[in-house]
Write a structure and sequence with these properties.
The complex is a heterodimer of chains A (246) and B (213). Helix content of chain A is 54%, strand content 8%. Chain A is an alpha+beta fold. Chain A is elongated. By secondary structure, chain B is α+β, with helices and mostly antiparallel strands. In chain B, 22% of the residues lie in helices and 29% in strands. Chain B has a five-stranded mixed β-barrel. Classes of the chains: A alpha+beta (246), B alpha+beta (213). Chains A and B meet through helix 3, strand 4 and helix 9 of A and helix 2 and strand 3 of B.
Chain lengths: 246, 213
């Protein structure tokens, strides 16, 4: 029930962000910097956001929410199926989405309007298929590659600045179509993704989650026999992780 | 174990170099620029301070692998960057960003070396055995402690998978050092190793049978 409520809240927030920005006056053209990958620089155009900038810069949990809201709202506009899949994945993986931001807004309600206005403004000024975006809020900067973020979700939730892969790199397995998989729920219950992992464990835990969802998940998981075998496999694979990473 | 302790100390020096800046890439670029400036100054006539070839490595073991100190993998201006870095702040839940540069010591390329350190697993095979890892001079079991700088990370791909060791187990790593950049989601590295062998540090007289090759 709590998951359903949380999901509805996330959907409503994103819908508000998307709807907020339908008819709007023209805004300054974004500055595009030429680097190895062109970066679309998006300075905030709204004034009086010092408190919000400080909150985002100080608390990585709020920074993660900011990136999640931005990319999911952008995907809702540009590729609605991916946008919906991200929201479902956030719920299925039990991510602490909007928990920190909800607490911030409860304490300072004015920041809620500022946050959603800011995200809407950024989304409206982002052309679909922009490879790399620099979100700017006063002195705060965050580089986000929307497509990379979406296709690496839920893992990208704790690493919003995840750089685009170098040309020729193998694509990691996509989770966007796995929101309904019971193995995905199991993987993220067994190895929760909360951003509190030491860096030495990030790759090992991430890879095991991906293997559980893609390589180890039995096609006949509905049967008791398959479930027992799968449970034994998970126990074995978790036991092969270094102690610090379990 | 003295060398491991030295490596840990150096690691902590590196580990205590995290800043509060929000973006890892920015730190890396800033440090790279500082090291570039030092390099330019040297090129303009100041004394070269990169160790000569003979000073880079220590004595060979019985198999011909020369002992290598982690600090010799960094140009000296990079060491200065680490020494001047602010300490790790153990507050909040922000992961420490990697700092440092991709600058390397050309004289090390192709050398058969051995050095002590720790394993950070990157990839496993279908059975869950490790096939790829970073070799690092220290382990910092805390979210605030960042990865070592790229030029103190060695990227290793194994020909044959091995059981993933504990993060805190010390090893000798032996093989032929290469200069090559690896950039993945958790860190960047400036060195790699070919024909790598891991030997548990606790048994310095290990025979070939004890090695993970």
């Amino acid at each position: 029930m709590a998951g359903l409520v949380a999901g509805l809240v996330v959907m409503v927030v994103i819908a508000l962000v998307v709807l907020w920005g339908r008819p709007r006056p023209p805004v300054p053209a974004p500055v595009v910097k030429e680097r190895r990958v062109a970066i679309l620089s998006l300075p905030a155009t709204l004034a009086g956001q010092q408190a919000l900038a400080k909150a985002v810069g100080d608390d990585p949990a709020i920074e993660r929410d900011l990136a999640f809201l931005y990319v999911s709202a952008l995907e809702m506009r540009c590729d609605p199926s991916d946008g919906h899949a991200m929201v479902k994945l956030a719920m299925a993986a039990g991510l602490p989405t909007l928990r920190a931001t909800g607490q911030l807004i409860a304490a300072q309600p004015v920041l809620g309007n500022q946050l959603y206005g800011l995200i809407n403004d950024w989304v409206r000024r982002t052309p679909c298929a922009t490879p790399l975006v620099e979100l700017r809020l006063m002195d705060y900067r965050l580089h986000v590659a929307p497509a990379t973020y979406a296709h690496a979700f839920p893992e990208s939730y704790v690493d919003p600045a995840m750089a685009p892969l170098p040309a020729g790199s193998p694509e990691p397995p996509d989770m966007l179509g796995e929101a309904g998989s019971p193995c995905l729920r199991l993987a993220y219950r067994l190895l929760p993704l909360d951003g509190a992992e030491p860096w030495q464990c990030v790759a090992a835990r991430r890879q095991l989650r991906q293997q559980i969802v893609h390589a180890l998940c039995p096609p006949d998981i509905g049967t008791a026999e398959a479930q027992a075998k799968f449970a034994a496999t998970l126990h074995d694979r978790e036991g092969r992780l270094p102690d610090m990473c379990r | 174990m003295k060398r491991v302790a030295t490596a840990c100390l150096l690691g902590l020096l590196a580990a205590c170099s995290g800043s509060k800046a929000p973006a890892t890439q920015t730190d890396l670029q800033r440090a790279q620029a500082a090291a570039d400036a030092g390099r330019t100054a040297r090129a303009e006539g100041k004394a070269a301070n990169v160790p000569e070839h003979g000073d880079l490595v220590g004595l060979p073991d019985r198999d011909g692998y020369n002992e290598l100190d982690w600090t010799h993998m960094l140009p000296k201006e990079d060491l200065a960057i680490l020494k001047d870095s602010p300490p790790v702040v153990h507050v909040g839940n922000r992961q420490g960003p990697q700092i440092g540069t991709l600058h390397t010591v050309p004289g090390l390329a192709g050398q058969r070396v051995r050095l002590t350190g720790y394993v950070v697993p990157l990839n496993t095979d279908a059975n869950g055995d490790m096939t790829e890892f970073f070799f690092v001079p220290f382990y910092g079991a805390c979210i605030h402690v960042p990865p070592p700088p790229p030029n103190m990370l060695i990227h290793v791909r194994l020909d044959k998978a091995i059981p993933t060791p504990q993060i805190w187990d010390p090893f000798w790593l032996r093989g032929t050092l290469r200069i090559s950049i690896e950039h993945n989601a958790i860190a960047a590295s400036a060195y790699s190793m070919a024909d790598a062998q891991l030997v548990p540090y606790a048994d310095p007289n290990a025979t070939t049978d004890d090695r993970f090759e």
